[in-house]
Amino acid sequence: MAAKNVRARVRDVPGPCARWGDDDADFIREVLDLVGDKWSVLIIGTLADGPARYSELAAAIPGVSQRMLTLTLKHLQRYGLLARTAYPEVPPRVEYRLTVLGRSLLSTVLALAEWSADNHAEVRRNQEAFDGATAVD
Amino acid sequence: MAAKNVRARVRDVPGPCARWGDDDADFIREVLDLVGDKWSVLIIGTLADGPARYSELAAAIPGVSQRMLTLTLKHLQRYGLLARTAYPEVPPRVEYRLTVLGRSLLSTVLALAEWSADNHAEVRRNQEAFDGATAVD
DNA sequence: CCGGATCCAGTGGGATACTG
DNA sequence: CAGTATCCCACTGGATCCGG
């Protein structure tokens, strides 16, 4: 597959305009579909250190509704980032854990989180400067 | 700032449930607000190799509407990832380029794109397997 | 305990037409 | 050329109730 080295391709383009192939755009969409929503990253991060039950996830992630937790879990499971194991006991118990694929995404996603932690102060300053500038003039 | 090492914190937690601080959740939101939408990453990637004009961006990014291009550009500019330079000529010319901050995000974001390029085949297989399984039984 | 079903408000984002 | 303004629809995501 030609898109293995997106970075190299983009930087090699000589002209002023690095045209995206539709493939590349699709890849971006794909990854955004995985982690671009409100809760996926939180769930993946929570599962980083080991399996967790549904109610543990609900407790660990502040503000998530049952609906969105269920939905996002299913979403991640569908893409193979999460494995779901239901134990047919009474009361029922369900465990979620990261797959190998999920763990590989974890490191990348945490890199993003670290970037945000490193730079959020500057981002806020920029916001305020921008808003102030547009408001003044 | 305490959240510099999100990864370390998450992995160090001994229990089954790594509770997110609200701070961490906020950081995630912040970064998703930056790159979680449909066009930001494409724009950042297009600007990777140098400045580009509005119309060049429009041409380079297939499927983007004027509205969304303008909106996303302003969004990225507000956060300080992009710089906008308008030349008061006739006809008007406007150039967008990545700031240092934007370039620092670029590498992280391209890592995501590479992950997606590497794993999208497996992701698709998982999707189909999942859909098939749920459809069968 | 887990999560499906339903209802509903807010918003993301496309198409189109217009302006400086 | 480089946007802005408006309409509109589909989807996201929260609250709540219900079922296994």
From TrEMBL, chains A, B:
PROSITE patterns: HTH_HXLR (PS51118)
Organism of provenance: Planotetraspora kaengkrachanensis
GO molecular function, one term: DNA binding
InterPro entries: HTH_HxlR, WH-like_DNA-bd_sf, WH_DNA-bd_sf
Alphabetically ordered keywords of this record: DNA-binding, Transcription, Transcription regulation
The keyword Chloroplast is assigned to this record: no
UniProt KW Transcription regulation keyword: yes
Domain of life of the organism encoding this protein: Bacteria
Domain called HTH hxlR-type: residue spans: 17-124
Protein name: HxlR family transcriptional regulator
